[in-house]
Design a protein that fits this description.
Number of domains: 2
Helix content: 10-25%
Distance between the termini: 59 Å
Length: 746
């Protein structure tokens, strides 16, 4: 049946799960109106904001994903070989310099203890450096945009999970609460004064036990089919209010009887409310005709599940919950089952009793749903433990939400609907959106992925064939190598003069919206309902890129120090130098590599940690281009050590121009005519975001406030790159429509 008394024990956890998410993808947005923003949020209650709207912005934006992928090679057999030099192609090296225009930090990949500061990456001799792998990642990201590459392999395609408990009645919340869960209010009992104790129950949700069998996961039902189909629907578990537990305990004490809910004391479990609170500690407040019951919360709560014995009063009310007897005996009137209590809730604090497992009629969960669940867990697991400092308790928090291991059977809640199985460790479970992430890219991108079997076959675009790929059926080594770029220390100066000590260390919270934030990541062009991953025609906004900042931004006081990122950056003004070597590149490939390194004239880039706060703005310049002189290398004259042909800045620009000319002829317009790739939406937006002479005002690219609930209450998507740079912020959608005819900023 599972591990006995699992996860029971005293803990320190406040139930506040936080998640900062990961860079992913979205696409363009469309708005043409103008608005004045005065910082005062005013909401008119109609899912639309008045003209004096709250701020909507972020330190990042999105470069549209190219609809049509450009395949540089049609077959793997066409790829240049690595075991010989092709004299019709170009081999050599680029000498590059990186100047840090703001403070910069790139970690060395070493784990640091909680509360300590990460140090800058170092070469073998201890000199700080920008690792070649970091440069390769930057160049590959640039090349994907500039080379019209496929995003297959750069985006994990899975179904995002979400929860919409207590949200405003938007389209997605109605779908969650009404269509999938069927959430309804129910009565659990009465308090000491005879008033009803109410909660809400998702009537479509059942309880069961999840087990791993071979490589699959199976959900088995319980011995109880439903507790009260008329009021509770499919619900086959018993919700128990903690208020009822405390009241029953007080009554038992006053009558000299044993506590009927002794399980939490016997197992050392800390409830969501403080274990020692009394009925008189609960306060009732009435706000906006709604009753709110609040009691003293425990700062030491941690989610738990444990095997117990329970007794019913009638067919659906739990009268007693006790620990399993040491001799295994089950007292008369009691049944075996599990108690489970998940993440801390605000007011309606309940736990659930799940009847024992019925070892037949198991349901195998589709592999795709398991993969999506695993991805969701990986995305959030490092924040599940909240501010807990105890390592053991952190692991228990993570284990609570993980899939079962070995022969373990864990109580679980699930819904079967439309051929899908939604499951989790709370009745108000996170469900899958109808479509996966990659459904939001262009038809051409999706068809390309389908033809290539999700990377079972290689992607023969520029980024993959220049920088290498690893597919299930084949692989290809990169034709470009990046050495570590070493910090340049002027003669007469010491390394210590460049390093910041802990006294000058940086401490910030690097939180940002998750991919499930559809206001950020999806195109929104509807005044009535937000576009979500449930819609058949949703579009991702594009590839996320961070705005350039003139200087590093103040981060303010860090309230939750345990969630902070701590590091020791190098000061602005430092420089790094290194080489990029290449082999057997065609003329256009070399041009794209050079362009992906240095970008357009007057471009800056950002690299490393805390880009959203302005760290890591760099100028990457090409000092020299050296090409192998095959005549000197393989001529009949005496052996020569001078095998390079040094190229000028004009030659460097020549190769970039040759790539652009090549693509203008080969990356055709839909009508088959030659193109101007600089006018393509993706390259245009990308170039604008990297232009050092056109950086947005800081107030236009700051994070939205959580304290002022700017982010939580927003009903607007992020503005486009053009709108941000033009300082245009649409007032409301209707005004935007009126001005659309005279505006060209979108």
């Amino acid at each position: 049946m599972g591990k006995k008394n699992q996860y029971a024990g005293k803990s320190q956890y406040d139930g506040k799960n936080q998640y900062d998410g990961k860079n992913q993808y979205g696409k363009k947005n469309q708005y043409d109106g103008k608005r004045q923003y005065d910082g005062k949020r005013q909401y008119d209650g109609k899912n639309q904001y008045s003209k004096k709207d709250q701020y909507v912005g972020a330190p990042y934006n999105f470069v549209p994903i190219t609809k049509n992928i450009y395949k540089r090679y049609q077959r793997e057999q066409e790829l240049p070989r690595h075991d010989k030099i092709d004299i019709k192609r170009y081999s050599g090296e680029l000498t590059c310099r990186i100047d840090a225009l703001t403070d910069i930090f790139i970690g060395g990949g070493k784990d640091v203890k909680q509360g300590e500061y990460s140090s800058f990456a170092q070469c073998m001799d201890g000199v700080p450096c920008i690792p070649g792998s970091s440069l390769k990642g930057l160049v590959r990201s640039n090349m994907q945009v500039l080379g019209f590459g496929a995003i297959a392999g750069d985006v994990e395609d899975y179904h995002i999970m979400y929860r919409q408990v207590g949200a405003a009645k938007s389209k997605v919340s109605r779908y969650y609460s009404d269509s999938i869960l069927d959430v309804k209010p129910v009565v659990l009992g009465t308090d000491k004064k005879g008033k009803q104790i109410r909660t809400t129950v998702p009537k479509n949700v059942k309880a069961g036990y999840i087990k791993k069998e071979g490589s699959s996961y199976v959900i088995y039902p319980t011995e109880v089919d439903t507790i009260d189909r008329k009021q509770f629907g499919e619900c086959n578990y018993y919700p128990v209010s903690e208020r009822e537990v405390f009241r029953a305990k007080e009554e038992a004490e006053s009558q000299g009887k044993e506590n009927p809910f002794s399980f939490f004391e016997e197992l050392g479990i800390q409830m969501q409310h403080d274990n020692h609170c009394r009925s008189c500690d609960f306060k009732i407040e009435i706000k906006k005709r709604r009753t709110h019951v609040k009691g003293p919360e425990s700062p030491n709560y941690i989610p738990y599940m444990a095997e117990i014995l329970y007794k019913l009063n009638g067919n659906r009310k739990v009268a007693s919950v006790i620990n399993i007897k040491p001799d295994g005996e089950c007292p008369i009137g009691y049944k075996s089952g599990y108690v489970i209590s998940t993440g801390q809730m605000r007011e309606k604090k309940v736990f659930y009793i799940i009847p024992k497992l019925k070892a037949e009629g198991g349901i195998t969960i589709p592999e795709s749903d398991i993969l999506s669940f695993k991805q969701d867990y990986e995305n959030k697991k490092n924040k599940l433990h909240g501010p807990l400092k105890d390592t053991g308790l952190r692991e228990k928090c993570r284990d609570f939400f993980a899939l079962p291991k070995g022969d373990e059977a864990k109580p679980v809640f699930f819904v079967e609907q439309g051929g899908r199985i939604y499951f989790g460790y709370t009745p108000f479970l996170r469900i899958f959106y109808e479509h996966s992430i990659m459904h939001g890219v262009s038809k051409e991108q999706r068809e390309y992925m389908k033809r290539n079997g999700d990377l079972k076959k290689p992607v023969l675009d520029y980024p993959s064939t220049i920088l290498g790929y690893a597919a299930d059926q084949s692989s290809y080594k990169s034709r470009v190598s990046f050495e570590d770029f070493r910090l340049q220390i002027p003669e007469g100066m010491e390394l210590e003069q460049y390093l910041k000590t802990k006294q000058y260390g940086v401490e910030i919270i690097q939180g940002e919206p998750k991919l499930s934030s559809y206001w950020d990541y999806l195109v929104q062009d509807n005044t009535e309902h937000a576009m979500t991953y449930n819609e058949d025609d949703f579009e991702l906004r594009g590839i996320k890129q961070y705005w350039l900042h003139e200087k590093v931004q103040k981060t303010g006081e860090v309230k939750n120090g345990d969630a902070a990122s701590r590091f020791l950056p190098l000061k602005e003004g430092v420089s790094f130098e290194g080489k990029v070597r290449f082999k057997n590149l065609s003329e256009d490939e070399l041009g794209l590599l050079i362009w992906s390194l240095s970008l357009e004239t007057d471009s800056n880039q950002n690299i490393g940690r805390a880009k959203s706060f302005g760290y890591g703005r760099i100028d990457l310049s090409l000092e020299h281009l050296w090409l192998y002189d095959y005549g000197k290398m393989y001529g009949k004259s005496a052996l020569s050590m001078d095998v390079f042909d040094k190229k000028t800045a004009e030659d460097i620009n020549y190769f970039v121009g040759r790539y652009k000319d090549y693509m203008n002829q080969n990356y055709k317009k839909p009508n088959g005519q030659p193109n101007d790739i600089m006018k393509e939406k993706s390259i245009d937006a990308f170039s604008k975001m990297k232009d050092k002479n056109n950086m947005p005002k800081e107030k236009s690219i700051a994070y939205m406030s959580l304290d002022n609930r700017d982010y939580q209450n927003r009903k607007r998507p992020l503005h486009t790159v053009g709108q941000v740079l033009a300082q245009e912020t649409p007032s409301d959608i209707e005004e935007g429509k009126k001005n659309a005819a005279g505006s060209n900023s979108g």
